Amino acid sequence: KCFFGPRCRFLHDVGEYLAVKPPDLGPSCVLFQTFGKCSYGVTCRFAQSHLGDGHQNIINTELAKQWEGKSLVRNNLSKELQHQLRKRKFSFQKADEYLRGLAKPRGDGGKGGKATGSSAEVSNCTTPQEGLGDGLECPVLPEQGEDPKPDALQSPDPTGGEETSTTKTVGPVTDEDVIKLRSCEKRKLSIQGKLYLAPLTTCGNLPFRRICKHFGAEVTCGEMAVCTNLLQGQSSEWALLKRHHSEDIFGVQLEGAFPDTMTKCAELLNQTIEVDFVDINVGCPIDLVYKKGGGCALMTRSNKFEQIVRGMNSVLDVPLTVKIRTGVQEKINVAHKIIPKIREWGASMVTVQGY
């Protein structure tokens, strides 16, 4: 019974509705063929392919059972996580540890906020990395007697004024409790010879990536997401991180200008979403981004750039990649000078936008 009576604007007779409904667009419904049922029923523009006697919606039970309990789209923002971010109750333990290392004054009287030079860092990883950054040697922590690095992977000095943790642990001590993982021991990703769909702002959304995946793209990356908006729990920004189940190798691209927000955002994504790599956008020329010190402006701010790369690499369990331009000023290329430094800072791969 319709409580609106003659004022109701909808049709209650299915036959009458189908008589005035526009003709179907085709003979088959992709939702019915893929998932065994179409949630749109008689309103589907391909309804004749899954309507039975009495205009009832047909369900392929065998095919539908295969999709029960499976999530078609992952990396959604839950209400609980959004509440934690807006109330600032999310724990950034690793990021805070790294940032405290940046704020700690050095013994040579220099400013603690500046990153130390990378010339003292030596790699003893003799095995080339597989996957991203193939052939690159992995940076490791400096040995005793060298200048300390502002890296969260470095164990805090008990005599250096750091506050020791009061949390008591139970159980045997493992190797990871004593020796932190090096970059070459992290999760590896092999993309040699695979077609990489570059992140495209305002274009590379999830439906577009699904189409490109259908036509042969093997590695996909989400649109550029602003880290400050992600930390605030904005639903529109988190939508850029969504991953379709068909994207078997998927990464996200982040944009930011400061080590604190970028490192915290990297730890947030490392704990809450499923990605295979994280990319830093150091090539965006948009004025809104450039004037804040992000995008390609980071190529001229080497100290902040180094702190961001080292900080994000220290909190991620997946490879960290960087996208840069050939240069910031016209006809002045600096990419060949920056790439060796990015390698020393711990990035697994660098992509260059050739203009």
TrEMBL record:
InterPro entries: Aldolase_TIM, DUS-like_FMN-bd, tRNA_hU_synthase_CS, Znf_CCCH. PROSITE patterns: UPF0034 (PS01136), ZF_C3H1 (PS50103). Residues 101-111 have a biased composition (Basic and acidic residues). It is an enzyme of class 1 (oxidoreductase). The keyword Transmembrane helix does not apply. Its cofactor is FMN. GO terms for biological process: mRNA processing. Catalyzes the synthesis of dihydrouridine, a modified base, in various RNAs, such as tRNAs, mRNAs and some long non-coding RNAs (lncRNAs). Mainly modifies the uridine in position 47 (U47) in the D-loop of most cytoplasmic tRNAs. Also able to mediate the formation of dihydrouridine in some mRNAs, thereby regulating their translation. GO terms for molecular function: flavin adenine dinucleotide binding; RNA binding; tRNA-dihydrouridine47 synthase activity; zinc ion binding. Its EC number is 1.3.1.-. This is tRNA-dihydrouridine(47) synthase [NAD(P)(+)]. It catalyses: a 5,6-dihydrouridine in mRNA + NADP(+) = a uridine in mRNA + NADPH + H(+); a 5,6-dihydrouridine in mRNA + NAD(+) = a uridine in mRNA + NADH + H(+); 5,6-dihydrouridine(47) in tRNA + NADP(+) = uridine(47) in tRNA + NADPH + H(+); 5,6-dihydrouridine(47) in tRNA + NAD(+) = uridine(47) in tRNA + NADH + H(+). The keyword Flavoprotein applies. It comes from Brachypteracias leptosomus. SUPFAM superfamilies: FMN-linked oxidoreductases (SSF51395). Keywords: Flavoprotein, FMN, Metal-binding, mRNA processing, NAD, NADP, Oxidoreductase, tRNA processing, Zinc, Zinc-finger. Belongs to the dus family. Dus3 subfamily. Residues 1-15, 23-53 form the C3H1-type domain. A zinc finger (C3H1-type) spans 1-15, 23-53. Residues 101-170 are annotated as: Disordered. Gene3D superfamilies: Aldolase class I, Zinc finger, CCCH-type.
